[in-house]
Structure formats: C-alpha cells, structure tokens
Amino acid sequence: MEPENDSLEASEARRFFGHRLARIAAAWRREIDTDLRAFGLTDATWRPIYYLNFSTTPMRQTDLARSLSLEAPSLVRLLDVLEKRGYVVRETDEEDRRSKLVSITDEGRQVAALVSQVADEVTVRLTAAISDRELDECGQVLDRVEQAAQEHRELASHAVPLRRDSGAGRGSDHV
After folding, report:
1. pLDDT tens sequence across 24-41
2. Alpha-carbon gap, residue 32 to 89, rounded angstroms
C-alpha cells in the first residue's frame, strides 16, 4: 500500500513543480524590483536593460518582446521611455526594414551593472541557507526540465499538423 502513496506523492510533487517554479521566479523578481525601486527602476524598466546587456548584437524588438513575455505595443511604449532616458537606441533593421533593432547604450550598461549587482545581492540573500551542493543539484534538475521543454518545442515545430478530413466516417479508410 505504501508504494501507491509514494507514487501519489510523486505525482503531487510533479503536478505542483511548475506552479512552484513560477511562484519562486515571480517572488525573486519582486525582491529585485523592490531593491531597485530605490534607484528609480521598476520591473518594467530594468528587465529590458538586463536582457539587452547580455546581447552582443542589437536585438529585434519582436525577439525582445518574446523574451520579456510582453505584447509588442507594450514594449514599444516601454522602449520610448528607456530611449528618452538614454538607456537604449532603436534603429531600422537594414535586412528587414519593417523591423526595429534595439541596442543598449553606455548609460544603459551602467544601469545594467547596477541591476546585476542588486540581482547578485538578492541571490545571496535568498540562497543563504542553501549549500552549494544543493544549488548545484537544483541547477541540474532545472537544466533537465529546460532541456525537455526545448526538445518538446523542437519536436512540435517539426510535427506535421493533423488534417481534418471533411469526409470522416465515410468509407473504410477512415478510423
């Protein structure tokens, strides 16, 4: 009887894993956001700067919007603010004139350095009671989950969509 309980607990752990992961990510961002408010930065303003700082080349607005899980019109308004502050510049993409490329400026890099410093401080604070070994094991689990998601996306992108046959139910060749 105990093996059933173990499998139920495992199922419960799997069921809530994604939910817990999302909650932790949101809480982590709130911690960073709270600390950065002292510098006049909000979640909306620091995240694009943080992402752009990791990019070695200008990023398409559409790709940045996808990375930040923002709708394009929301990102455009946000980039207007960041551009006025001197943190980013937008240019027309010469390869696709309909697209805009976003680059971080030197002033934006200074802000990104501040964001990184605050993020590091939050990391130290939130992981203080966790050993390096535990963090490494957790990182390995998260890597495997991320890999499984990537593999699923790749399989889904290559899958042939099922066609609906309007003649379904007629003849012996329909199942």
Report:
1. 999 999 999 999 999 999
2. 25
Please enumerate in sequence order all residues whose Cβ is within 8 A of that of 102, keeping only pairs 6 or more positions apart, or say none: 48, 52, 58, 59, 60, 61, 64, 79, 88, 89, 90
Identify the pLDDT of residue 6. 58
Question: 88 and 104 in contact (C-beta within 8 Å)?
Answer: yes
Position 14: which residue type?
R
Q: Please tell me which residue, 165 or 74, carries the higher pLDDT value.
A: 74
What is the Cα–Cα distance from 73 to 59, expressed in whole angstroms?
Answer: 16
- 103 phi, psi to nearest 5 deg: -125, 150
pTM of the model: 0.73
Taking each helix axis as running N to C, give the angle between helix 43-54 and helix 61-68, from 0 to 180 degrees, rounded to the nearest 10.
120
